[in-house]
Each structure stands twice: as structure tokens, then as C-alpha cells.
Design brief:
Pfam families: GSH_synth_ATP, GSH_synthase. About 35% of the residues lie in helices and about 25% in strands. With about 350 residues, it is α+β, with helices and mostly antiparallel strands. Strands 3, 4, 5, 6, 7 and 8 form a six-stranded mixed β-sheet that branches. Strands 12-13-14-15 form a four-stranded antiparallel β-sheet. It has a three-stranded antiparallel β-sheet with strand order 9-11-10, with helices on both faces.
Length: about 350
């Protein structure tokens, strides 16, 4: 998001990193055509031509295809782990169709299906309904509620296999809020990017304040500061999927309850980013279009493929802009709060 600084300038600040089931790459590939169409209907052809092209579904499929290629079996499938009741299926289908255009077939299964019909041979090759699997692409399994005992067993089977995982469990954990907070500590980026002070400075400039709530003096001080100035902070649990963060009075109540408990270490505290609101027209199902004060969050899709310790691919493949009215503190597109949008360069 663009942080509004005290001197009136703006700076891009990082909200989070998502390393599992990053959604809307498919739908974001379609939104430029929607906005171009609306502007053309209104006779604004010059403005329509300025809408940036964006095709993350093609880029995401390119990364999965590279992993499939490295696996090295022409008849192997991509296994997409899907939820039982998936409302966002068309977003996923866009990536499936891009893979099919490369003659790579996708099979959709739930964790329960893997538990019942998945197997490994003596070389740890993964088979699903008798079909060899080259890549496992998770669109489920990013929240604790997604895991029954049976589903944990299925995840373990997938992790033990030699199929490429998107992501493996280590990469999923690397995307947690706690890791994000630890990466912001003084000296940490220098360890990961030795001899690159300019890169470290550029990265650190995008970090908002991030504070540990581990037991001890550091965590106690962070809690005291947040209770004293609740409008300056956000309390974040280790959760994905939107709608989990706590703000204002709700945050204060949670901190009062947690401050003497070790449970507090499962949260981090983050400086609240204050973007400059702007007017926009939000179109939602079941309600008339209306002009509202809005803020936007820009997401960048990246594709990262490695083989052992060898980096094979690390590319930016598109963007995602989500816009919501300022009265909503938390919640995204899936929660019915935000809408998919396009950046308009000026």
C-alpha cells in the first residue's frame, strides 16, 4: 500500500507475502478487458488504451509448467488440491486452461481423495488414481481449519513424495507473519543479502514497523505501546484467507486478554499503514454502483522455481489491485468487502 507520510509524500509499504494458494491471478487477467470495454462504451478510447495489460494466469502456469518439465515425465499430471466447496473455481480454471494449452493435464482432487487413493511407489513417485503426478499445486491447506487428521496424513504423503510441491511446507511457513516480522530485525537482511547494502536499503524502506509479541521485555513493551495508541497498530495472527486481523478496541481487548499468556507469541504487531483515500465507484452484486472513499492494495505475482539449491526461475508475472471502501478495516475480495481493480498510470 502507499503509506501517506507526515510531509505529504507517499511510500510503498509491504503488507505481507503469500506463499500458498495466491488467488485471483486468473480473474486479474480478465479485468483489464472489462475496464477497457467500459471506457470504450463511454467513448473514452484514449483512456481505455492506458489500461495496463496483465496476464498473471499465463505467468503462473509458466512456473508450474517449468516444474513439470524439470520432473521429466511426459505423461505425468499436475494435481490441484481443491476445497470441497470452491467459490473461486473460475480463477483456478484460468491457470488450468493455460496449462492445457501447453498439453499439461490437471486433475482436481481434495485432501480426502489423496488420503483414500493416493500412493507412493518405492522411488517415492506419487500416483493418484493410477496416474503419476509431477506437480502438486495447493489451492487448499492454508488454514488450520482445512486439516482434519485424515488431511494431515494426506499432506504428509504429498510432502514425502518426489513430486514438485507448490509450495512445499517449508516455503509455506516462510510466508507466515512471524517470519516476516523476524526478517525485519536489524541485521537479518544483511545475512541473507551479504555485500548488497543498496538492495538491503531498498527492501528495508518497504517494511512497516513489525514487532514480536514473544514473552519477555520486548513483547511487553510492544503490547504497552499498542494499548496506548491502538489506532497506530494492527494485531495479526498466523492466518491466511483474510478477515483475521484485529484493529482498534477489538485489538486492545485481545491484547489485555493475551498479555500474560504464552498464546500472545502466536501473533505479531504491525504498524498500521495509512494510505491516502480517493473516490472510486464500486460495483458489487446485489447493490447499486456508488461512489465511495476507497483505498487500494497492490499485489505482485512472482514465480519462483528451484531444483535443490539451484535457482531456475524467479520472475514477476503480473499484478493484482484490490480496492475497498475505507469503512472496512479488514477483509478482501473473497470476504465480499474488496473488488478487483486495475491500476491507471498517469
Amino acid at each position: 500500500m502507499f503509506q501517506r507520510n507526515a510531509d505529504g509524500s507517499a511510500a510503498l509499504k509491504q503488507i505481507e507475502i503469500n506463499t500458498i494458494s495466491a488467488s485471483f491471478g486468473g480473474l486479474a487477467s480478465r479485468t483489464p478487458a472489462v475496464h477497457r470495454h467500459v471506457l470504450n462504451v463511454l467513448g473514452k478510447t484514449k483512456e481505455a488504451a492506458k489500461i495496463l495489460s496483465n496476464n498473471p494466469s499465463k505467468g503462473l502456469a509458466m512456473g508450474i509448467a517449468k516444474a513439470w518439465e524439470l520432473y521429466g515425465s511426459a505423461n505425468a499430471r499436475v494435481l490441484l488440491i481443491a476445497q470441497e466447496k470452491e467459490r473461486n473455481i473460475f480463477d483456478q480454471r484460468a491457470i488450468e486452461n493455460e496449462l492445457l494449452a501447453r498439453n499439461i493435464h490437471v486433475i482436481r482432487r481434495k485432501f480426502e481423495d489423496v488420503s483414500e487413493k493416493g500412493s507412493l511407489d518405492q522411488d517415492r513417485r506419487l500416483f493418484m488414481d493410477g496416474q503419476e503426478v509431477a506437480v502438486v499445486y495447493f489451492r487448499d491447506g492454508y488454514m488450520p481449519s482445512h486439516y482434519s487428521l485424515q488431511n494431515w496424513e494426506a499432506r504428509l504423503l504429498l510432502e514425502r513424495s518426489c513430486a514438485v510441491k507448490c509450495p512445499d511446507v517449508a516455503t509455506q511457513l516462510a510466508g507466515t507473519k512471524k517470519v516476516q516480522q523476524e526478517l525485519s530485525r536489524s541485521g537479518m537482511l544483511e545475512v541473507l543479502l551479504p555485500g548488497q547494502p543498496e538492495a538491503v536499503a531498498r527492501l528495508r524502506a518497504t517494511f512497516a514497523g513489525l514487532y514480536s509479541l514473544d514473552m519477555g521485555e520486548e513483547g511487553d513493551q510492544a503490547i504497552t505501546e499498542a494499548i496506548a495508541a491502538p489506532n497506530c497498530f494492527v494485531l495479526k495472527p498466523q492466518r491466511e484467507g483474510g478477515g483475521n486481523n484485529l484493529y482498534g478496541e477489538e485489538m486492545v481487548q485481545a491484547l489485555e486478554r493475551l498479555k500474560d499468556s504464552e498464546e500472545r507469541a502466536s501473533y505479531i504487531l504491525m504498524e498500521k499503514i495509512e494510505p491516502e483515500p480517493f473516490e472510486n465507484c464500486l460495483l458489487r452484486p446485489g447493490s447499486p454502483a456508488r461512489v465511495a472513499q476507497c483505498i487500494s492494495e497492490l499485489g505482485i505475482f512472482g514465480v519462483y522455481v528451484r531444483q535443490g539449491k539451484t535457482l531456475v526461475m524467479n520472475k514477476h508475472v503480473g499484478h493484482l489491485l484490490r480496492t475497498k471502501a475505507i469503512e472496512h478495516a479488514d477483509g478482501g475480495v473473497a470476504a465480499g468487502v474488496a473488488v478487483l481493480d486495475n491500476p491507471y498510470p498517469v
